[in-house]
UniProtKB/TrEMBL annotation:
<feature type="transmembrane region" description="Helical">
    <location>
        <begin position="178"/>
        <end position="199"/>
    </location>
</feature>
<feature type="transmembrane region" description="Helical">
    <location>
        <begin position="136"/>
        <end position="166"/>
    </location>
</feature>
<keyword id="KW-0812">Transmembrane</keyword>
<dbReference type="InterPro" id="IPR001902">
    <property type="entry name" value="SLC26A/SulP_fam"/>
</dbReference>
<keyword id="KW-0472">Membrane</keyword>
<dbReference type="InterPro" id="IPR002645">
    <property type="entry name" value="STAS_dom"/>
</dbReference>
<feature type="transmembrane region" description="Helical">
    <location>
        <begin position="304"/>
        <end position="324"/>
    </location>
</feature>
<dbReference type="InterPro" id="IPR036513">
    <property type="entry name" value="STAS_dom_sf"/>
</dbReference>
<dbReference type="InterPro" id="IPR018045">
    <property type="entry name" value="S04_transporter_CS"/>
</dbReference>
<dbReference type="GO" id="GO:0016020">
    <property type="term" value="C:membrane"/>
</dbReference>
<feature type="transmembrane region" description="Helical">
    <location>
        <begin position="431"/>
        <end position="461"/>
    </location>
</feature>
<keyword id="KW-1133">Transmembrane helix</keyword>
<dbReference type="InterPro" id="IPR011547">
    <property type="entry name" value="SLC26A/SulP_dom"/>
</dbReference>
<feature type="transmembrane region" description="Helical">
    <location>
        <begin position="43"/>
        <end position="68"/>
    </location>
</feature>
<feature type="transmembrane region" description="Helical">
    <location>
        <begin position="97"/>
        <end position="116"/>
    </location>
</feature>
<feature type="transmembrane region" description="Helical">
    <location>
        <begin position="211"/>
        <end position="235"/>
    </location>
</feature>
<dbReference type="Pfam" id="PF00916">
    <property type="entry name" value="Sulfate_transp"/>
</dbReference>
Length: 618
């Protein structure tokens, strides 16, 4: 008890006003940007941006709920609740928080596995007395709640760096595979077919098989309406891109086509006259909070973790792009906390997994949005539709939502064009892309992500014989021996022993040992004399000048040993030895060496004729 009291006293002494202020600003980033908010300059842009983004968020929420195998009204929940908490906790001022098609599809895979279209649901006690839709909502919200727990835990544990293991190539291949899954999943709505949801490995093959078996039963009205809407939306989106500099805001073509489709469907009674499946009864208002189901946690933990990773990786990458463009910083760990709390809060009110969508964020930024006030306004618009205007969407054909989903896949599907570019630039990167994409298409998104990470790790090679050694402190007479000992330990062999075995150098080595010269040049020459190339990288100019003054250079230690960065040294060595086939050289122009951070301190790169890359730090 006494020890605890002493610890608390120490904490209170260390907690001054400045530290408390920094802690509050870190946990509530809204305070930071609200203090500098320029009402006259930014408010109008935020309002216009919020309205434009809100219209798109509503349409995407309705459409992406089909990917999650949920009633469309729950997509409006995802457009509202997560944004409320992110408004206070998020560090990005521009991303639009809400539904994202890849996450919706991953949640939908869990939903259809536990509550299939055909057959009994999983043996979960919480399902008793619930309809199929209620069971699916329970599964989706529980998976989202667990996803939020994972994200919050990673944020608290400060592991935001985890996204560095998801390279751009891997993410591109993964999202392309997700686009293929989304496309196939929406074909049943576009064609007006009754195809049960299938999850698991090869699910895309089985789904296509069932679609082709029923292809003669296609609803012509659904098909024609979908083709017309996809054509119109595609054309107007292209015009938006061409004339974006002249348009104050992009033309909300999805909203326009949705309104027209609702009116035509209601006026001509598509549901009864042409047997068109419509959205149907929309939930008016909001339901009370709901606790997640622990049994669903146990059944979906394996799937919830990759959903959490993908959701954060996508949101963080988009947020980083706009933070660089507008010159402010974002905090990866705080973003994890923000999304974790947002998903936990949203799941309590029956929303499904939230992240961001690049198209929605682009609209929010390009239409004048400066802060998350635009995001808050877009959430308010979703609330208005849910509370007061939802009934107007009831006659909307589901094929229209499917068409809107498909036409918005253009950006992800166009990533197939990266294959020839990657093949020319780096065949290893192309292998990662293809392995991730094919694995995710055939095995499902969760297993596909694991396959992609495995392929990526297998392609990370260590050129045989390379040792990267760094000492983060000045070298002077008192630590030279320590430096040499650590250097020999890092290399794995003692150059003096090698020299002793070489008859030509034996006499010279003995002479040097008798002189007991501890100069740092001898540590370098010991390696040079046994044909080990030595390079010094990231060395400040004033140090090089000092070395010249101290007569550091001679016929063995040359100025050509110095390189400004580790990356430059590695490229030089690879170019020098690119024809050395007996050592299994592989030349890569865009490789993992760029990820080594060398501070402006003395760093040593020891390069024998063969290569193996490691990193040692004293």
């Amino acid at each position: 008890m006494c020890t605890l009291r002493i610890a608390l006293v120490k904490i209170m002494r260390n907690c001054d006003s400045k530290r408390a202020k920094n802690a509050v600003l870190s946990l509530l980033p809204i305070i930071g940007w609200m203090r500098i908010y320029r009402v006259r300059e930014w408010l109008l842009g935020d309002v216009v941006s919020g309205i434009s983004t809100g219209l798109i968020a509503i349409m995407q929420g309705l459409a992406f709920s089909l990917l999650a195998s949920l009633p469309p009204s729950y997509g409006l929940y995802t457009a509202f609740f997560p944004m409320l908490t992110y408004f206070f906790l998020g560090t990005s001022r521009h991303i639009s928080v809400g539904s994202f098609p890849v996450l919706s599809l991953m949640v939908g895979a869990v939903v259809t596995r536990l509550v299939p279209d055909e057959g009994p649901p999983a043996n979960i006690t919480g399902f008793e007395g619930l309809t199929q839709d209620q069971q699916r909502v329970l599964v989706a919200s529980s998976v989202t709640f667990l996803m939020g727990i994972f994200q919050l835990a990673m944020g608290v544990l400060q592991v935001g760096f985890i996204v560095v293991y998801l390279s751009d190539t891997l993410v591109s291949g993964f999202t392309t595979a997700a686009a293929v899954h989304i496309l196939v999943s929406q074909l049943k709505f576009v064609l007006g077919l009754t195809v049960p949801g299938i999850s698991g490995p090869l699910s895309i093959i089985y789904t296509l098989e069932k679609i082709f078996v029923q292809i003669t039963s296609t609803n012509i009205c659904d098909l024609v309406m979908s083709i017309l809407i996809m054509a119109m939306v595609f054309i107007v989106k292209e015009l938006n891109d061409i004339y974006k500099a002249k348009l104050p805001v992009p033309i909300p073509i999805e909203v326009i086509m949705t309104v027209i489709a609702c009116g035509v469907s209601y006026g001509f009674n598509f549901e009864k006259r042409y047997d068109v499946e419509i959205v149907g009864k929309m939930v008016s208002g909001y339901e009370p909070p709901m606790a997640p189901n622990v049994e669903v946690f146990q059944e979906s933990a394996v799937e919830a973790f990759p959903i959490a990773i993908v959701g954060f990786a996508v949101a963080f990458s988009v947020a980083k792009v706009y933070s660089i463009k507008h010159d402010y910083t974002i905090d990866g760990n705080q973003e994890l906390i923000a999304f974790g709390i947002s998903n936990i809060f949203g799941a309590s009110f029956r929303s499904f997994a939230a992240s961001t969508a690049l198209s929605r964020t682009a609209v929010q930024e390009s239409s004048g949005g400066k802060t998350q006030i635009a995001g808050l306004i877009s959430a308010m618009m979703a609330m208005i539709v849910t509370v007061a205007l939802g009934f107007l969407l009831e006659p909307l054909p589901r094929s229209v939502l499917g068409a809107l989903v498909i036409v918005n896949l253009k950006g992800m599907l166009m990533q197939f064009r990266e294959i020839p570019y990657l093949w020319r630039r780096d065949k290893t990167e192309c292998l990662v892309w293809l392995g991730t994409c094919l694995g995710a298409i055939l095995l499902g998104l969760d297993l596909g992500l694991v396959v992609g990470l495995g392929v990526e790790l297998l392609t990370i090679f260590e050129p045989k014989g390379v040792k990267i050694f760094r000492i983060p402190s000045p070298i002077f007479f008192a630590n030279i021996e320590f430096f040499r000992d650590k250097l020999v330990e890092a290399v794995g062999f003692n150059p003096l022993r090698v020299l002793r075995k070489r008859n030509k150098a034996l006499r010279k080595i003995k002479k040097q040992l008798q002189q007991k010269d501890d100069d740092i040049t001898e540590a370098l020459k010991e390696f040079i004399r046994i044909d080990v190339d030595v390079y010094i990288v990231a060395c400040d100019v004033y140090i090089v000048e000092k070395l010249h003054m101290c007569m550091f250079f001679d016929d063995e230690i040359l100025t050509s040993m110095f390189f400004p960065t580790l990356h430059d040294a590695m490229l030089h060595v690879l170019e020098k030895h690119k024809d050395d086939t007996k050592n299994g050289w592989v030349v890569r122009k865009n490789c993992s060496w760029t990820y080594y951070t060398i501070l402006p301190e003395l760093a040593w790169l020891l390069l024998p004729s063969g290569f193996k890359i490691t990193r040692q730090k004293i």
